[in-house]
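<backbone_tokenisation>
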Amino acid sequence: DITYGNENQLPGDILQKVRDAYDDYKVTSVANIKESGRDVWIINLESLKNIVVVWAEGDEFDEVNKIAKTN
């Protein structure tokens, strides 16, 4: 099952980790994937210069991709 949304759908502990790690970024969208007992979040963030994709599951949190914007 996959659901899409914004930062309001993120669990508070994950949102806090994202804000702490990416304080100058805005959460642009999220996807929550629930399958086989797993609860995975894919979080898209954007700053003035970069776009970042972050993966979170439970206490694990990792940057998947970082793309520099071109002007």
The longest strand covers residues 26-35. The CA atoms of residues 14 and 56 lie 7 Å apart.
